[in-house]
# Entry
Amino acid sequence: MEQYEITSKVSVYSYDELPDDEKKLVDMAREATQNSYAPYSHFYVGAALELNNGVRMIGCNQENAASPVTICAERSAVFAAGAQYPDVPVKKLAITARNDDGFLDWPTAPCGSCRQVLLETEYKFQQPIRILLDSRNGIHVVETIKALLPMQFVADSMKSNS
Ligand code: THU
# Structure
């Protein structure tokens, strides 16, 4: 029997420690929670991404009475970017969330489906996405979605015997 461990590094920054472009992304993600359509969960998630060309775009969760139809903030941002700038890599993504009592003490990490979409985006552009998970106790940063999604499945996974 063999074993191995899969570890990830998460860096925690205060807001003031972030470079200006990342402060801006966090601000935009926080503002984007205002646009959430979350009448069912009352959980308002905002995302903001920065593309390689400097363009920044937001996303937020959009719920539906038919709950599986709901789209998360992260996918709303990434798909909007894919629609408008299909050839420009996503460089950074900030995510934040609040409920009716305010922003949360601990970061909201992307759901499994969003992680897979972010993985596909990294794969498509062959570029990691720096992900900033905002909370009231700091901004938790990973350098790639792979840190949140060990043992990934990508297109190459279907030809790993060649
Ligand atoms: N949600 C997101 O937008 N992103 C996440 O990473 C987690 C969950 C949304 C989906 C739904 O509208 C609400 O949060 C509760 O699950």
